[in-house]
Design a protein that fits this description.
Spore Coat Polysaccharide Biosynthesis Protein SpsA, Chain A, alpha/beta, eight-stranded mixed sheet, globular, 197 residues
Length: 197
């Protein structure tokens, strides 16, 4: 693999039970959560895809859709899809982000790229919490396949297995930039935060 720019894959396969419907389609400040994620990703990579649970979940024409090979694996399915997509397009690294993260910092990709060093993963940490669904990964398909084959399902545990560099992140103006929108109450709070900023 030769291209130095990491691919970005947006994980949008969650069922959205607590949201009352499709999480990527929920609106925030007049745009869907997925549109917010695509807008952010387009500023940081020329190679973007969206990972989904099944092909009926989204209807996009301009962005590649990656359908999870095994939907019962949970979020690690999105990482498998991301690794395969990056490898297919000759990228050594891929940044996996959730579709439900409207406050991602503008320097996330740059800081993780600087922080990864010789490790296989660079993962942000804010307020003492790891954020495995917002991590930069070296594309190591064989290692991930072996992890899943032995029953591994946790992205965080996979990062621990292959080697992770944690990158500390301060909360900006009291807003954790890695706040993810998991229910309608959180969506309303995010809307309020955006109105105040």
């Amino acid at each position: 693999m030769t291209d130095a720019t990491p691919a970005i894959v947006i994980a949008a396969g969650g069922e959205g039970r607590r949201m009352g419907g499709s999480k990527p389609a929920q609106t925030l400040a007049g745009k869907s959560l997925l549109d917010h994620a695509l807008h952010w990703a387009s500023k940081h990579s020329d190679l973007i895809a969206v990972a989904v649970r099944d092909s009926d979940q989204l209807d996009l024409t301009s962005i590649p859709i990656l359908v999870d090979a095994a939907a019962d694996l949970g979020p690690i399915s999105a990482l498998k899809s991301a690794f395969g997509f990056a490898e297919e397009h000759n990228r050594d690294q891929v940044l996996l982000i959730g579709c439900d993260l409207p406050f991602l910092p503008s320097d996330l990709a740059e800081r993780l790229a600087r922080g990864i060093g010789s490790q296989s993963c660079a993962m942000p940490v804010s307020k003492g919490r790891d954020h495995p669904m917002t991590a930069l990964w070296r594309v190591e398909c064989a290692a991930l396949d072996a992890f899943v084959a032995t029953g591994g399902r946790s992205i965080w545990r996979f990062a621990e297995c292959v080697g992770v560099k944690r990158v500390d992140w301060p909360a900006d103006q009291g807003i954790d930039p890695f706040t993810n929108i998991n229910d309608l109450e959180m969506l309303a709070r995010a809307e309020s935060k955006l109105r105040q900023s």
